[in-house]
Amino acid sequence: MPTHADARRGARIPVAVLGATGSVGQRFVQLLEAHPWFRLAEVVASGRSAGRSYGDAADWRLDTLLPASAASLEVKPLGAELESRLVFSGLDSSVAGEAEDDYANRGVVVVSNSRNHRMDVDVPLLIPEINAEHLGAIDRQRKRRGSNGYIVTNPNCSTIGLAMAIAPIERRFGIDQLHVTTMQAISGAGYAGVSSYAILDNVIPFIGGGEEEKIETEPRKILGRWESERFIDAPFRISAQVNRVPTIDGHLMTISLKLRDGGADLDAIRDAIRSFTGEPQRLGLPSAPKQPVHYADEQDRPQPRLDRDREDGMAVTVGRLRPCPLLDIRMVALVHNTIRGAAGAALLNAELLEARGML
Amino acid sequence: MPTHADARRGARIPVAVLGATGSVGQRFVQLLEAHPWFRLAEVVASGRSAGRSYGDAADWRLDTLLPASAASLEVKPLGAELESRLVFSGLDSSVAGEAEDDYANRGVVVVSNSRNHRMDVDVPLLIPEINAEHLGAIDRQRKRRGSNGYIVTNPNCSTIGLAMAIAPIERRFGIDQLHVTTMQAISGAGYAGVSSYAILDNVIPFIGGGEEEKIETEPRKILGRWESERFIDAPFRISAQVNRVPTIDGHLMTISLKLRDGGADLDAIRDAIRSFTGEPQRLGLPSAPKQPVHYADEQDRPQPRLDRDREDGMAVTVGRLRPCPLLDIRMVALVHNTIRGAAGAALLNAELLEARGML
Amino acid sequence: MPTHADARRGARIPVAVLGATGSVGQRFVQLLEAHPWFRLAEVVASGRSAGRSYGDAADWRLDTLLPASAASLEVKPLGAELESRLVFSGLDSSVAGEAEDDYANRGVVVVSNSRNHRMDVDVPLLIPEINAEHLGAIDRQRKRRGSNGYIVTNPNCSTIGLAMAIAPIERRFGIDQLHVTTMQAISGAGYAGVSSYAILDNVIPFIGGGEEEKIETEPRKILGRWESERFIDAPFRISAQVNRVPTIDGHLMTISLKLRDGGADLDAIRDAIRSFTGEPQRLGLPSAPKQPVHYADEQDRPQPRLDRDREDGMAVTVGRLRPCPLLDIRMVALVHNTIRGAAGAALLNAELLEARGML
Amino acid sequence: MPTHADARRGARIPVAVLGATGSVGQRFVQLLEAHPWFRLAEVVASGRSAGRSYGDAADWRLDTLLPASAASLEVKPLGAELESRLVFSGLDSSVAGEAEDDYANRGVVVVSNSRNHRMDVDVPLLIPEINAEHLGAIDRQRKRRGSNGYIVTNPNCSTIGLAMAIAPIERRFGIDQLHVTTMQAISGAGYAGVSSYAILDNVIPFIGGGEEEKIETEPRKILGRWESERFIDAPFRISAQVNRVPTIDGHLMTISLKLRDGGADLDAIRDAIRSFTGEPQRLGLPSAPKQPVHYADEQDRPQPRLDRDREDGMAVTVGRLRPCPLLDIRMVALVHNTIRGAAGAALLNAELLEARGML
Q: How many Cα neighbours within 13 Å face the side chain of A36?
């Protein structure tokens, strides 16, 4: 079966990265280096970086070397006119709101990892395996802007892991209630976000920026419907408690679920998880994991260091499915927070837009 | 008001430590060094240690120096006749069951941290602040044994933290349901228990030895009653999910609670926590914390490294009390797992026995 | 033998802390709480903290609770007139130079942990066990200032550990050359100094601010002489290589030494280490360790977590003394970098000044 | 230019792994999965694993999934007759000595990572970039054994990093003396080797098994010559001090060097490092790094987490080259201890044997 990816021809599409020197921005630069469809053409950053070479401005922190082609790009100031029609945004939320709107209004397609526009009434909060049909909102968004540009967002890093872990269950059995406690890696806070003095030999039972609220609201939009020109939330309720733990990458979470119709055939649930698939798999998108949600049979998995890199960090892993004495079932889920939970998620969103002819 | 502690006179009581070379055993030796009532007279260990000096046999791992008086003691073999009438047991559960029974049957008072006899029908699972009246079971136990000796146990390290955190709430408002997710320190597994290769940059969502089951059952016995010669469990139900995290000491847990009568006056609950007190405080026991459960007002506390040593590790700290979207309230609790959660707990139990004249 | 400490009478001396909200400042506040001679009367900080209560302005990070008496103090702005004649400075080096001079010129005795004035020609770089006679420089300093005030400094955290570890050897056998490689704890960089993303599962073979240069020069002043109104450096040379490692507190270092007269009777060296003592011990200063340099016989000690708190963090520990295939001897040394290596060092300096009647 | 690798044809060579369930053994299994020349045909382990499937017997700990083809292999007992003519040994040193001799005497080519035979008078201690000519010793070894089989070893993990870092300098400028302090990752001790309680928030200035002695002797054999049927050590002397630090993978070391002829043109040394190359590069061996020794220009590199994976973990990285106040130059070096420092090293050795027609 020929896929879109196989069929695609011609030169790679030039793209820009906003907030290119930050932690999410660096991941974008890393993941774009060898991308078959997109080519990093422009890097944009606020403040002091503009005018310097990217190699000079970025304090590169990833464990692969800075791509030479990126290093030589000159950093453009935020707001500068861009030649790229597609931009990825890893901007800090303090500036992302206005800057992304501005670019979208000028006709640019903004694929954003920032939180500012996630809950907007005509902005998709997109996980292509789950809610590709939310792209229907873009028509309405374009009308509002009076522009051909638009914004598409991906969820919070923890939300993506949670939403993907429960989507196979929600779609087949329905979910009524959900308790989740997260243990989140320090990379989620950016390079300078968590002081080592704060987190070594420690756990911090709090994450700022409304982390718990995001996890309690975003999944309901994601698993909801786009219908009659508006988003209708999924009806389940969530209680989220978040913690920062001393791991580098990989958000782990314990989950307890009440199913809509009770009952809990664990084998059927495991089967739903393993067979779950969506648009990215059907379209053969370049960044799509072959199996979006893995199930680990070992009694002590998933674990951040051992499982976060499954399918290049794009698959979520679930394990320890078992009955809950209070609700119906319990399980553990893991997501690579800076790949599937951030830059990789945005990249997959952009690939879906391209495959759908929306660029 | 003169307390028992003030009133006490005379020589310190000689005591023995079983399993003295293990991690809990070393804590016993450390805490007993300057104890006002008890004097370490004998150390007992299984296998290869017997016959050697304690300083030679113990691979001392605590961050205070090995007391010289303990170092010179000769290690006695498990089962040896002891001169001490009171023994503390930090034995591994593989041998504790039989060995503790054996000593109790020979007239010894065994204050144990091991799990083997915790759920026995006539053995108190004691937290002196909560259920001192469970000592009523000892009469029945002595009859069964036909001996003056008996066993008293303290709960699992996580259970103690959980039970103390919820006791003030349970006693005043009643508890109906409880979700708890723990993040447990590596010292809970003993010195060699968790390989660094397993836990660095990682979280393990599983702890062997029935950890979740213990947390789901022990609190019900602890908060239950001794009545008509038997233990009657408290009626609430618990769902526990446990994780090992890379912290040295201090088990942290997120808790979500349904109260018996609903409602949730957070100020009243905070007040219940702060004013909670019990027998050890009334009797002025030497190891008793002044305030058994602290409440931390900061939004990001308690934290293991910053709060585990409150009141020399004998106080539990609670924080982040807030409403739960699904149940009634949520909060975070912390216990020093090797002090209040193990050796310190047993020591306090023994102090209660002495103050009650039961030695 | 009555000591100065025993003899002392009367009210505690009021003191101020400059830079009180920083990491060294917080240690000063902590250590002063129960000090027998000094009483924390004033807290001073730059910038936004001034005018707020200390409890409000300090983001308290130590593992003991913030003393209530300190919490209620109002933070004064840097440069404010002070009622205290003695001030401790934990100021950042960006402001310490001028501010400390200013106070000294106004008649205040400034006991500083900052690096700015350490190498000044008439400022003692004081370790009371080693070079109490350097206080002779104060007369000359007072003349220069035309004031009764003056500055006394303590060395860099690593330097203190190194200087104390080698002083017993240098004093008895003479030292000719010295290689040292440090493994320094993250607390040395202050609370926000080292990002967890930078140091978890990592070692950074570089520390800014001229760390290697300080270690290569300060010990020569410390172990040198005050003679004919000037400091004469000790003649040995040092090569220092520094690393940041993921430990909380405690700088560990490997040392290789060439002795002046060759030869290396290891027993004699160990004896020199263990019997080393100085003014603080003779005077019975309150913060003085009984034995300034401990020697650990175990083959794998000292270790930061196990040995940093010896004598309340005021003793340095040496171990693994053995021959060097290239020079004469090798050994390992450890210092608690924020106590003996910073705030505790300054406190001991001030105690010496008081005992000598120089306040 | 066609290389041997390009030229090679035909089926992959079946190989066995001895000690396949251990940490080095698992790396062998991982690296062999997609190897172009070798095919994992047999797994061998001592004791309880024999007779079980590898998937069942191995407690797989790497961060890639256990290859399915390996999982289904039946573990053979140590000493069993093998069909493979080439075996990789990751055996523990307690059994490696005899078992490897036994297989070699039976005609098997044993490529070993164990320490037992490294210093044997006719066994190459091989780093193909440095001393491929040491393979000359194999003739003599075969004669001794009266067999076609033989043993080839690779050095200790730290030694490989050190030897590769200094080889470019030694070959061009000569080395006279060398101080090295290592900071070694916990994976070097195997999965259960370092307890987390021992190493979290800590550094251990000691590694058992004669680690310092190995680093002081092995490099002299490696950089020496095979001449007149015997190994002649290189004449320089080494002083090594070793430490265990809480990193997962990657041994970092600070080095201070005295050159044979003094002088120290840093640019010439950097050039020697970057241009260093050897047999594996000339032959295009599949596991050969393109550039065996990288030089990092940043002032704070190399760092274990950021640089250990360069060239799939097969390149060593050097940085911070600068003058030494005591000797001539100083620098920092890093090696991935379980890839280039263990399993990857052995694999490269076997590739050299195959390319030379010695299998």
A: 15
